[in-house]
């Protein structure tokens, strides 16, 4: 709940500064009509059209989180995305979906990966999910939850690792992020958090090569 209150005040993003700078430099009278139209959609007060139920990762199932657990945005135009944050639900897939749909919970991630590799998206990558416990990291990251418990290594199945790696590879490609431990981090590594996930049994030495392999395969497809 505290995180939601702390994260609720919208600030002017970098796109407003970029647009203002461009207008001052060249003057709106000499901007081409199509350029003006393009910049209009990048204004902080203008919302791009969206399709209900649309997902950012092909094959994911859409289940909407409560609007109380995320903030509408237009990333990466207003906030750069430079991190993927790995979480563990500390519970079942169904319980994670339920709490992310609870407006009183105050938190939710963009995605949940089930043990069998099924992926559910609950918040668009455009928007700021309250998942990291740190406003700055919320604004610049995509959060991925994984079904299970940090002290049960058997919860981290082959299907889960493979599906999560494909998802993270696609996110890294979309935002041009290097596939490394600086840009793919655990919740425990977020400054100021009191969480320990994904825990000592999450196999980073296995996961990062899987993400690299998936990104290479996607690039060739």
Overview of the structural elements:
GO terms for molecular function: N-acetylmuramoyl-L-alanine amidase activity. By secondary structure, this protein is of the alpha/beta class. The protein has a single domain, classed as Peptidoglycan recognition protein-like (Lysozyme-like), CATH 3.40.80. The protein is 33% helix and 11% strand. Strands 1-5-4-7-3-8 form a 6-stranded mixed sheet, sandwiched between helices. It has a two-stranded antiparallel sheet with strand order 2-6. Helix 6 (158-174) packs across helix 7 (204-220). The chain is globular, with a radius of gyration of 18 Å. The protein starts with a helix and ends with a helix. The model is unreliable at 1-6, 8-31 and 33-41 (pLDDT under 50).
Keywords:
disordered N terminus, Lysozyme-like, two-stranded antiparallel sheet, 8 strands, alpha/beta, globular
Q: What is the fold's blueprint, element by element?
A:
Blueprint: H1 2-6, H2 14-26, H3 33-40, E1 61-62, E2 70-71, E3 83-86, H4 93-100, E4 111-113, E5 119-121, E6 128-129, H5 135-139, E7 141-146, H6 158-174, E8 184-186, H7 204-220
Parallel strand pairs: 1-5, 3-7, 3-8, 4-7
Antiparallel strand pairs: 2-6, 4-5
Helix pairs in contact: 6-7
Give Rg in angstroms. Answer: 18 Å
Residue share in helices?
Answer: 25-40%
Query: What's the CATH topology name?
Result: Lysozyme-like
What best-fitting shape do the alpha-carbon axes yield?
globular
- Residue runs with pLDDT of under 50 for 5 or more positions: 1-6, 8-31, 33-41
Protein name: N-acetylmuramoyl-L-alanine amidase
Keywords: Cell wall biogenesis/degradation, Hydrolase
EC number: 3.5.1.28
InterPro entries: Amidase/PGRP_sf, Amidase_domain, NAMLAA_amidase_2
């Amino acid at each position: 709940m505290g995180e939601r209150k702390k994260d609720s005040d919208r600030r002017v993003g970098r796109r407003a500064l970029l647009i203002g700078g461009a207008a001052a430099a060249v003057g709106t009278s000499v901007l081409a009509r199509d350029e003006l139209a393009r910049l209009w959609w990048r204004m902080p007060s203008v919302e791009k059209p969206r399709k209900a139920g649309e997902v950012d990762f092909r094959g994911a199932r859409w289940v909407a989180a409560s609007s109380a657990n995320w903030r509408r945005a237009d990333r990466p135009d207003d906030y750069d995305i430079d991190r993927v944050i790995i979480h563990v639900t500390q519970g079942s897939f169904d319980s994670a979906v339920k709490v992310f749909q609870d407006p009183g919970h105050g938190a939710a991630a963009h995605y949940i990966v089930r043990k069998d590799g099924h992926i559910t998206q609950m918040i668009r990558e455009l928007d700021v999910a309250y998942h990291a416990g740190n406003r700055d990291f919320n604004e610049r990251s995509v959060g991925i939850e994984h079904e299970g418990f940090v002290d049960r290594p058997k919860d981290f199945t082959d299907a889960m690792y493979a599906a999560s790696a494909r998802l993270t590879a696609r996110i890294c490609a979309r935002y041009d992020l290097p596939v490394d431990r600086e840009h793919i981090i655990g919740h425990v590594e977020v400054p100021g958090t009191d969480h320990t996930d994904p825990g000592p049994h999450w196999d980073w030495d296995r996961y990062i090569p899987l993400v690299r392999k998936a990104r290479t395969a996607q690039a060739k497809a």
